[in-house]
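Following up on my earlier thread - several people asked me to post the actual chain instead of describing it. Fair enough. Here it is, all 315 residues.
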Amino acid sequence: MFGDDHFLPIVLLNVLGAAGVVVWHLQGSNRPTARLIVQILFFFCMSLVLYVGDIAPAQPESIYTQGFTALLSKSAMILWWTHLAWTTIGLIHIYVSLNRKPREAHLIMDMAVAVIYLGVALSVMGFVFGMPIATLVTTSGVVAVILGLALQNTLGDVFSGIALTLGRAYAIGDWIQLSDGTAGRVTESNWRSTNLLTAVNNIVVLPNSQLARQSLTSLSRPDETHQITLGVRFAAGQRPSFVEEAMRTVLESSIRIVADPPPTVVLRAIDAVAIEVELQFRVASVAMGISAKNEIIDLIHGRCETSGLSLAPPA
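Reply from S.P.:
Thanks for posting it. Predicted structure:
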């Protein structure tokens, strides 16, 4: 039973808890640091009141009474557990920020937040309202199995998204190419799917489970540069060294390819009809590939006119 020694701490807990909620909302979502300071400060003050008042939030049978005092004590404990959840979540956010985790870690953060809120909800039901937690957990397990069967595909997407996040196969902004030929820049990664912006400015929404089953090539790692190969056939009447030098001049004249690493001219084959040449060069990003290739083709045409080179018919 609460005596006079407990009434004042309970009232103070309600005041601090309600004030913490109001101040927390007034800070706004654009001030996460201020919010975290408010969370820690009010939670520390409420915990100090519990300690000084000799009140144990995990022992409801020795604390709560009947009447208005019981209502105050229950609301005080609910506010304390709520502030505990907020403080824990805030500290996890700080840990993620200090360790410079990738933006995709919000999937793991969401799961951690869900687990924390679930644990706090069960604690409130058990410690504040005295409900049988074991029965609730058992019932929840049966419901979870039913929901798991009903949401099998969705859960597959969720856990595939978590696996992709932990594996860090890609990051927001990376260019990737899948084994089915789909290629694009990663613009968003959420619980269910990953969005790719293709070169033709379309958004492709890929379920995470489908993405996890395919082999993936990152076009942005170890850097953004992308190699392009262009094959050209010249008439066999010209010397290969002259053709090589002409193509090297073409590559050096381009303004859309990168100079480091330098482009390469490879003489692939020769027969009675043609000399097969392969031009290998890099562009700053995948998005520059089409314009750079068009420029090289135009430069090859101009070089053929000025140097007397003749193109061979297709093989």
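The chain is about 55% helix and 15% strand. That should answer part of your original question.
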